[in-house]
Amino acid sequence: MSNELLDALDRLEKEKGISRDLLVEAIEAALVSAYKRNFNQAQNVRTDFNLETGSMKVFARKEVVDEVFDTRLEISLEEARKIDPNYEIGDIVEIEVTPRNFGRIAAQTAKQVVTQRVREAERGIIFEEFSDREDDIMTGIVQRKDHRFVYVSLGRAEALMPVHEQMPNETYNHNDRIKVYITKVEMTTKGPQIFVSRTHPNLLKRLFELEVPEIYEGEVEIMSVAREAGDRSKISVYSANKDVDPVGACVGPKGSRVQAVVDELCGEKIDIVKYSKDPVEFVANALSPSKVLDVLVNEEEKSTVVVVPDYQLSLAIGKRGQNARLAAKLTGWKIDIKSETDAREMGIYPREEPFFSEDVIMEANSQDQEQEHLLVDDELPQDKE
């Protein structure tokens, strides 16, 4: 048993990275408890685990005193000097009290301690590994599901995907490979617990980082994301490099890059719009694919009134208000959409000074056409003139 234990300590140190000294310390502490529990001893003892021979001994520790009141904890000066003439009052005498059948108990205790420490070390390693992956995406394999979670294998650990983090248009079957966003990693009494999501807006962001080299290299930046998982999303992109078209970079040749993200999200429609520090231009871009005639801004209330052509009103609002709602989330501005006819009756359109220059209007319209052509078929209702 001794040689096997020593070999096991060596392997654990090499393979699991668990310090041998820490293991020995834990074994010795456990042996003290085992001795007191199995032999009904309440005295002060210590154990000695010999790393060379693998032998285990128990020593009772007693204080040298003039008058002995508790023989379990104290020893007289006379008795102490029989062991060693140099002992003085207040010294600690150690007397071996190893029971005859202690080897079997010691072996069992050591095995339990080693097993527990290995389990704790593995949990710690897994926790460290995945806590560094928070706010990142990983590819997992669906293991099983119940009414509360979908259980996703991430290799060394199993992650939990709660119901509210699951896509409403997806069915999760055993052995399905899916990309998930790690939202939280926490240590519990049962070990590390990892929570993942398929609905988080940052999943969309990370997928674009994988597909678009310009984002990974920092040439293009995703400024904001608005998402209604499984249905439709909008992202705003920006590039400080004037030679780089941020929208075109994310769309990719013949729409290949955005289509790869759409496929991963089971057909979720994605609008990519150009970010602008000017709220007027940003709001107009965010309402893509509808065309915008004018945007009136209220800085104090951080709200806007957007004027669109009559035939584009339903397109600008979207099904169940979805397009306008996503645009508001994307920009952080409240958006009130008015048709051109209503705006004229209210006297807010047209203004004396034009809202857009001809260049801006042409650029916005060309972006709308590019979105409609390259992204996904838009099912928003649209009236014809």
UniProtKB/TrEMBL annotation:
Gene3D superfamilies registered for this protein in UniProt: 3.30.300.20, Nucleic acid-binding proteins (2.40.50.140), NusA, N-terminal domain (3.30.1480.10)
GO MF term (any one): ATP binding
GO cellular component: cytosol
Domain S1 motif: 133-199
Keyword Transferase: no
TM ranges: none
Record-annotated K Homology domain positions: 229-301, 302-381
Domain of life, source organism: Bacteria
Keyword Transcription regulation: yes
Any one Gene Ontology BP term: transcription antitermination
Record keywords, A-Z: Cytoplasm, RNA-binding, Transcription, Transcription antitermination, Transcription regulation, Transcription termination
Cell compartments where the protein resides: Cytoplasm
InterPro entries found in the cross-reference section: Gly-tRNA-synth_heterodimer (IPR006194), KH_dom (IPR004087), KH_dom-like_a/b (IPR015946), KH_NusA_2nd (IPR058582), KH_sf_prok-type (IPR009019), NA-bd_OB-fold (IPR012340), NusA_N_sf (IPR036555), S1_domain (IPR003029)
Assembly and interaction partners: Monomer. Binds directly to the core enzyme of the DNA-dependent RNA polymerase and to nascent RNA.
Family listed: Belongs to the NusA family.
Functional summary from the UniProt entry: Participates in both transcription termination and antitermination.
Name the UniProt record assigns to this protein: Transcription termination/antitermination protein NusA
